[in-house]
Specification:
The chain has 182 residues and is of the alpha+beta class. It folds into two domains: 77 residues, no CATH class; 62 residues, Orthogonal Bundle (DNA Binding (I), subunit A). Helices cover 15% and strands 24% of the residues. It is built from four helices and six strands. The C terminus is likely disordered.
Length: 182
C-alpha cells in the first residue's frame, strides 16, 4: 500500500503526472482536488477510514510561472528533435551525443547557442574543429528554446492500475497479451 500511486488530472481530465497517494490525500483535504477513482483498499486513522485515491482531478487551473528552459542533454535532444544537426539522421538516446559548434579549445561556451545534437559518427568527423574547418554544414542554428518539452508519463502496461486506464492515451491495444517466452 505504501507504493500505491495516484494519477493527477487537470481540469479537462488530461493526465499531468503521477503523485504519491499521501500527496493526493493532502491535496484533497486542502480542497484542491476531487477524487475521480478510488482503490479498493484504504487507510485508517483513529476516527476516519479513507479509501486511497487512484485518480484525482484538479479543481482549479494553475498557471506555471515562466522559467527559462533548463539547460540539459535531454532538452537539447528535444529541441533538435533527436536529429543529428550535421547529417540529419534521427536516432535514439543511446546513439546521440552533443557537440560544441565552436569547440571549447577555440573559446566556445557550453550553452544553448553553442551546443547541438550530434551522432557519434559526425562528432568524430568534426573532432575539435569548427564546422567550416571540418567541411560540415550545420542544419540549424542552435538557440535557447522558450518552450518546455512535452510531459510524458511513462507507465508499464503490466503495472498500470485498472482505475487509470480510462484516463491515459495509448498507442496500442490494451487487451493484447505479450507472447510468453517459455
Amino acid at each position: 500500500m505504501d507504493t500505491a500511486q495516484t494519477l493527477l488530472l487537470n481540469q479537462g481530465f488530461e493526465p499531468i503526472k503521477v503523485i504519491s497517494w499521501q500527496r493526493a490525500i493532502t491535496l484533497l483535504f486542502l480542497g484542491k482536488v476531487e477524487v475521480v477513482e478510488e482503490y479498493s483498499h484504504g487507510v485508517r486513522s483513529v476516527n476516519l477510514v479513507l479509501k486511497i485515491p487512484a485518480v484525482v482531478r484538479l479543481l482549479r487551473s494553475f498557471r506555471r510561472h515562466h522559467r527559462p528552459v533548463k539547460f540539459s542533454r535531454v532538452n537539447i535532444y528535444a529541441r533538435d528533435h533527436y536529429k543529428c544537426q550535421y547529417c540529419g539522421r534521427k536516432a535514439s538516446l543511446s546513439e546521440l551525443t552533443y557537440d560544441h559548434v565552436t569547440p571549447r579549445s577555440h573559446g566556445g561556451l557550453t550553452d544553448w547557442t553553442n551546443i547541438v545534437t550530434c551522432c557519434y559518427l559526425c562528432n568524430r568527423k568534426k573532432g575539435g574543429d569548427t564546422p567550416a574547418q571540418a567541411g560540415m554544414k550545420l542544419l540549424s542554428q542552435p538557440t535557447q528554446p522558450n518552450w518546455v518539452p512535452a510531459v510524458t508519463i511513462r507507465v508499464s502496461l503490466r503495472s498500470v492500475p485498472e482505475a487509470w486506464r480510462d484516463y491515459l492515451y495509448w498507442t496500442g491495444s490494451l487487451d493484447v497479451d505479450e507472447p510468453s517466452t517459455s
